[in-house]
Amino acid sequence: MSLAAFALAAAVSCTPTLGADLNDISHALRKSRGIPDYVAGALVRVVWAGGPAGRGGVQVGDVIQAVGGDLVQNVCGVRQAIAKRGCGDVRLTIRRGVDTMAVDVHLADASRFHRKKGLCQDGDGAACTAMAKEHNDVVLLRNGCDLGDGEGCFLLGLALKTNDPKGSVAAYEQACDAGYSLACTNLGWMIQNGLGARVDVDAARRLFQRGCDGSACTGRNNLGCVNVGRLDRDGIGVKADHPRALQIFRDVCGRTPRAGDAEDAGNIARACSLAGTDLIWGKELTHDIPEGLALLEKGCTRNDSFGCFNLGAAYEDGEVVPKDTTRAGAYYKRACDGGDDEACQRLASLAK
């Protein structure tokens, strides 16, 4: 093997580490450490003995704000930036107290370090969240969230949504900042509907878009995209833009759902049904009946009851396709089986 090939093989096999345990900056951590709301990044909780961070002068309590030229918003952002660079030299931008400074570190191979599993009682938020999931314990979820674990905040938001909407909003805010795109979408929905916060459609739309754009941590959230499309279609908070809404629905319809994620698959199917509905009946659009029917069929085939219902309505009414009550009944039955009460009623009416 040539020296160049050997160097390339070594670089590929290296899994870089900063040599520090990091937390997202929770509300509790901001308050206890005096970190202003405008400061984003990842908080250094533990510096490993002999690790790159310690040798470079990183200290517990520092907030990492950039890795090389990449600004980072959270722990996931730091990890992604480090993984992209591989082992070697990199400059970190950190905030220490009220000062911002540059620190040069040499990222080393993680296999050189053997870390014990973190403990909740030692301040490891992720460990608290893991225990909470194991024991279905909301108190431990709150501990995990307060200690800066994004997943703990997301799960806490879900747990508090019904009985403590304000608490849910606060938890979702932190999870969204930590890169959980579904938390951004959920938070937008709560703000749009005035649950735990005053109604603010503009803020809700920004959060839906943030969920739609996704993050390096959890990818994009297709429900956020669908919600943006609905606001554009209906002119809620913005001037109605039917072509833009249709484009969003089409784009989402063409995506592949995440493996094993039934909710994501359902959101993509709903986007197909919405696109098909707009192409057949939408306002301020050039109608395309064949494509609209194909998209509705795509949504219905993927078990979206809305798409099945609209296909049933099209064949029952006979306005855009030849009337066919047999086909209408078949589509209504699929929608009824999917929980659509109106489809059940129409199916019963056809049977008379």
Structure description:
With 352 residues, this protein is of the alpha+beta class. Among the domains are: 15-109, PDZ domain (Pdz3 Domain); 118-216, Tetratricopeptide repeat domain (Serine Threonine Protein Phosphatase 5, Tetratricopeptide repeat), CATH 1.25.40. Helices cover 56% and strands 11% of the residues. It contains 17 helices and seven strands. It has helices at residues 3-13, 27-33, 52-56, 75-85, 125-135, 138-146, 150-160, 165-177, 181-192, 201-213, 222-234, 242-253, 262-281, 289-301, 305-317, 325-337, 341-351, and strands at 16-17, 20-24, 42-47, 63-67, 70-71, 88-96, 99-109. Strands 1, 2, 3, 4, 5, 6 and 7 form a seven-stranded antiparallel sheet that branches. A hairpin with a 2-residue loop joins strand 6 (88-96) and strand 7 (99-109). The longest helix is centred in the last third of the chain and has 20 residues, at 262-281. The protein is elongated and about 80 Å long. The model is unreliable at 6-11 (pLDDT under 50).
